[in-house]
Amino acid sequence: MKKASFSVHKQSDEALPEIIAIVPIKNDVVFPQLILPLEITGEGLIKAINEAIAKNEFIGIVALRYDIDLPEPTDFYEVGTAAKIVKVSEATSGNIKILIEGVARIKVTEYTQTAPYYKARVEELRVFTEKTETVDVLVQGVITLFKLSAMLGKTLPKDVVSMIDTINNPSVLADLTAIYLELPVSEKQKLLEMIDPKKRLRVVFQYLNKEIQLTEVREKINEEVAKEMSKTQREYFLREQLRAIQKELGQDDPHMEEINKLEEKIQEAKMPKEVEMVAVKELERLRDINPASAEYPVSRTYLDYLINIPWNKGTIDNLEISQAAQILDEDHYGLEKVKARILEFLSVCKLKEKLKGPILCFCGPPGTGKTSLGKSIARALGRKFIRISLGGIRDEAEIRGHRRTYVGALPGRIIQEICRAGSNNPVFMLDEIDKIGDDFRGDPASSLLEVLDPEQNFSFVDHYIDVAFDLSHVLFITTANILDTVHTALRDRMEVLYLPGYSEDEKLRIAYQFLIPKQLRENGLEDQPVTFQNQSVYKIIREHTREAGLRNLEREIASICRKVAKEIVAGEQITNEIRPEIVEKFLGPRKFFYQVAEEEDRIGVAIGLAWTETGGDIIFVEASRMKGEKELTLTGQLGEVMQESAIAALSYVRSNAKRLGIDENFYNTSDIHIHVPSGAIPKDGPSAGIAMCMALISLLTERRAKREVALTGEITLTGNVLPVGGVKEKVLAAIRAGVKAIVLPAKNKDDYEEIDKEIRNKIQCSYIQKVDDAIDLVLIQKS
Description:
By secondary structure, the chain is α/β, with parallel strands linked by helices. The protein has 27 helices and 27 strands.
């Protein structure tokens, strides 16, 4: 507040005019009886002041609701104070300084003039004080608290404390006290608008009481801080003296030097306050331990980890969407959904400063680029990249760390890797999450529930560190070949992005864009004009690999590059162009055969589509009939679900035999044998149900099954065909095998249409809802 005084002498009985000039003030409220200096700027207001001085008139002092330079009438409070100008203390061309004395409360009823200054019609708000016992008690209470506030160090003019005992008017006392309260303008305005002195005294009493309580608390805190500072300074001086004595005696203590260095590192580490308290406590403990003791290195190692953890060190994200998109496109072909998700994450980061890291799970066959995609994401974001493999981990301590009571205890892999990275916001890849073990040593998958939950991992506690570390800044990415073996609760915490595999054309483009240049570099051929023909790459893809990913394709290309390198070193004639016949020469005869195109239409043999961990594949379902007594034989390493599908297919055929044109008693004198070749490979799943049903119908109706049509779908006893998963993998497998048409459940139509049009154009697709819908699509009519 500006320097002010308070007048308690009897006010003039001069009548208040009906219309007076209005002077707005910012960040303050003028009360009656208050003498206050004001600085007036602006031609209009200076004119109003000069006219009021010349005519010895009142002016109205009204507070502004907002701190603005050009106020409108709506920006003024309605209640203000009529004041007399006591004197002009200083005047210049641009402003004027005056001393005013508040006279009475007024209420503005109407503004009659807005230029060059405001004039308004006002009415005086008269204050009537009724002397009661309650008022007397409030007066004494306010006086007592006001004096106590002054005793506790409140800054007040010298004469105010002595003056307050002479004030008998409750309204004047309330206004005097309100002037020196540390309140915002809005609260002081409320006090000005209170006409009833009793109510005003009660509010002032509450404010004074609260202010005294806060002052006492503040004093207590200051005393405690001063006491602590004194103790700290004393310890510092004593240590300095001890160090000086040791130096004079030539006895520099290496142990104390090490302790001092650790103390400096703790201060530089910028740990959270609660962690710093733990570190300081451990340091004090370490100070008292003999360096030769076995406990010393345990405590020292623990302190080193606390210091090296990047509590507040992180990298700044690259939030340029176009640049990130370019990096992702440079490193990976296709994978549009995954790239779009990463760009969405970057976009949200740009709009929202703190974002809890999403938990992405890349699921797909081996060699589809899951791990390398994590590296690309880190490069696109400009973050550090960390990768740990969870395959075969069985001990919970690998994730959460060991208790420090164990010999050789260490933090878990999560904290260890973050320490190595030196950043609290890396891209952290947890590879092979579907291959975590589980035994008597603990359940690592359950330990990951906290790590991979954005609602919990902001306070992850490693057993070794034993203090909370914030993992919410980390972008966790997990990879898996299949999700069936992943803990259900763990799977629920992750956003799954499927990488289904690549078509032949995609593999060709990836080979030219990434694999061939990479292998030429790695085998020292970057300066040699070695080129691969398209047909050569197709030959490698079709005849020497059978996979959804790219690993074997890269191996075969690397094998060719090595043989060219050998020619160069041996001084032989160099093969500069890799043609199809060169592929056969370097890689040998073809390793894989696709039998579909070479097979004949046969009775009792249907082609099914299966999903495997390494992508999709085709399977032949063979059915045969022989004399016997109602026995069903299933061979080919079929799992329980697949065996049930075969039983359901047979039951459907038997229950619908008459309608299908089959002898209803065929099973009474027959045995049925269903076999799925490649018997050494375990097979399971319900999607072969429709293929088994078609094989049985073909066998019993003696209608040949088309060799170029493959089916997939789960069947029910009522003949419904249910949807299945892994549609893209199965479609790619069918194309690789030379299948010309596929039959899918009708409810898988959306899954099929999500596949690239380029792939769909290579194969014909039909949809079925019932088993009967597939009969004419698959079986050839008898001639």
